[in-house]
């Protein structure tokens, strides 16, 4: 079912392929929780992060180490070959000679696909500028599958839908499952038309509003994202918008009992800490699920298939 | 038979390629796509903005003593989808065909996204997947940004 050599964009995935990743992630969850394994013993994963990352980098590292593999790191770009002007193409050819797979995060869009053309080993895209972040999408889908239901889902994507790469990939993937998607954002941060058209063409129902209150009582999943201050030239406008998308226990009073709240993290103040203790909060589980999902991808790409 | 206005402007060629029915004003872009620049040694005729029943206004390009191959000519469908290609030998049309965009176009159009890796000094050529032929819709292989409007502006 899964015959990919690289993981670059959700567009490359069929629903069956996504399902096979999620199924394998499910069976690997005990190892993500600490059960010993040497499935990837002797394998080395190279982490090439040209931009800062905490959870993505660390969860890849955790996934690899918990399966018995090793990790090598590019380290800060300063002082490395990049600052000497080496091309990305050359860098991945060199690093590909040291490792069994490469995880890359790079500020330029399309950089992971370029890397895949030059790398002798599988490449996993951990974010290419405003482009794609497929492993985040897969862990989001895994969270929805585990904590809610992927079929017949009603979901609200909230926040910066214009620049937020996670919501673009997620919306695309959800369209494969026939989800009912409501886009909630300030006018200036609405999802680009090209992506909305793509969703409608796939038969997905897409509603759009800037008022979260309109939808909060009618969704199964509330997917919050951070609204970045630097997107707003006017600080007053920013605080007005930021306040209107702040989730508190009171705000959730009329919500469905089984509503789950997700967030790719880090959060700033979109979700009040008081929500953490409610039955709705799932963002820390979601963050943890990055480990089994990345384990599944690593096993599919570089495992021997023997385990 | 009466001599048409177009024939008066450009006389028939003995051998080579005639590209007819180019959308008015696009002849120079067609030459650009074909890689024919001002330093070419080929005998070349370019007729622009003549009346056309089909297109209103059309351009014509004649390249003498050179038979353009299908794959090089097909790329002009990017900006001149109605173009027809006539291969001439001994003053006769020996082959006539329409242009048909290939599924992928490499090194002809650059991505409009300034943050795309293909717009850097990396050792790659811009590559576009053809998602739609009429109207033309391209998608950058690298950053997946679509390109549909003002394609001529992005010719390399």
Structure explained in plain terms:
The complex is a heterodimer of chains A (307) and B (156). The radius of gyration of chain A is 19 Å and the shape is globular. Chain A is of the alpha/beta class and 307 residues long. The mean pLDDT of chain A is 92. In chain A, the strands form two sheets. Chain A has a five-stranded parallel sheet with strand order 7-6-5-8-9. Chain A has a four-stranded parallel sheet with strand order 2-1-3-4. Chain A is built from nine helices and nine strands. In chain A, 36% of the residues lie in helices and 14% in strands. Chain A has two domains: 10-132 and 290-302, 3-Layer(aba) Sandwich (Rossmann fold), CATH 3.40.50.1370; 135-287, Rossmann fold (3-Layer(aba) Sandwich). Helix content of chain B is 12%, strand content 36%. Chain B is elongated, with a radius of gyration of 17 Å. Chain B contains three helices and nine strands. Chain B has a five-stranded antiparallel sheet. In chain B, strands 6-7-8-9 form a four-stranded antiparallel sheet, with no helix packed on it. By secondary structure, chain B is mainly beta. Chain B starts with a helix and ends in a 9-residue tail after the last strand. In chain B, strand 8 (136-140) and strand 9 form a beta hairpin. The model of chain B has no long low-confidence stretch (mean pLDDT 89). Chain B has two domains: 3-98, Aspartate carbamoyltransferase regulatory subunit, N-terminal domain (Alpha-Beta Plaits); 104-154, SH3 type barrels (Roll). At the A-B interface, helix 4 of A face loops of B.
């Amino acid at each position: 079912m899964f015959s990919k050599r690289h993981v670059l964009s959700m567009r490359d995935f069929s629903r069956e392929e996504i399902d096979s990743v999620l199924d394998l992630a499910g069976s690997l969850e005990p190892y993500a929780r600490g059960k010993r394994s040497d499935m990837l013993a002797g394998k080395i994963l190279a982490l090439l992060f040209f931009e800062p990352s905490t959870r993505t980098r660390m969860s890849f590292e955790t996934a690899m180490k918990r399966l018995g593999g090793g990790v090598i790191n590019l380290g800060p770009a300063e002082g490395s070959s990049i600052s000497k002007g080496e091309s990305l193409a050359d860098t991945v050819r060199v690093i590909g000679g040291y490792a069994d797979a490469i995880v890359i995060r790079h500020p330029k869009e399309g950089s992971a696909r370029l890397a895949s053309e030059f790398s002798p080993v599988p490449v996993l895209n951990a974010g290419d500028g405003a482009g794609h972040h497929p492993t985040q999408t897969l862990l989001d889908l895994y969270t929805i599958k585990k904590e809610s239901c992927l079929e017949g889902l009603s979901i609200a994507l909230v926040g910066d839908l214009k620049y937020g790469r996670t919501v673009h990939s997620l919306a695309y993937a959800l369209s494969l499952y026939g989800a009912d998607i409501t886009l909630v954002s300030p006018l200036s941060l609405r999802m680009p038309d090209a992506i909305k058209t793509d969703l409608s063409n796939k038969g997905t129902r897409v509603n759009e509003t800037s008022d979260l209150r309109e939808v909060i009582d009618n969704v199964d999943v509330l997917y919050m994202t951070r609204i970045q201050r630097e997107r707003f030239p006017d600080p007053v406008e920013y605080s007005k918008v930021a306040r209107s998308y702040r989730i508190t226990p009171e705000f959730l009073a009329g919500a469905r009992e089984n509503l789950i709240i997700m967030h790719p993290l880090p959060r700033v103040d979109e979700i009040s800490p008081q929500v953490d203790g409610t039955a709705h909060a799932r963002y820390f589980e979601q963050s943890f699920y990055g480990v089994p999902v990345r384990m599944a991808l690593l096993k599919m790409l570089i495992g021997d298939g023997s385990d | 038979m009466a001599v048409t206005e177009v024939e008066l402007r450009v006389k028939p060629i003995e051998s080579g390629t005639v590209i007819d029915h180019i959308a008015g004003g696009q002849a120079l872009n067609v030459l650009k796509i074909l890689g024919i620049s001002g330093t070419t040694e080929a005998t070349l005729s370019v007729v622009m903005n003549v009346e056309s029943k089909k297109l209103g206004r059309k351009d014509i390009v004649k390249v003498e003593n050179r038979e353009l191959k299908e794959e090089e000519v097909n790329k002009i469908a990017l900006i001149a989808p109605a173009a027809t290609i006539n291969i001439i030998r001994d003053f006769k049309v020996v082959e006539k065909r329409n242009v048909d965009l290939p599924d992928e176009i490499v090194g002809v159009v650059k991505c409009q996204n300034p943050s795309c890796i293909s717009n850097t000094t990396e050792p790659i050529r811009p590559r576009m997947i053809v998602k739609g032929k009429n109207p033309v819709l391209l998608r950058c292989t690298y950053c997946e940004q679509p390109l549909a409007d003002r394609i001529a502006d992005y010719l390399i």
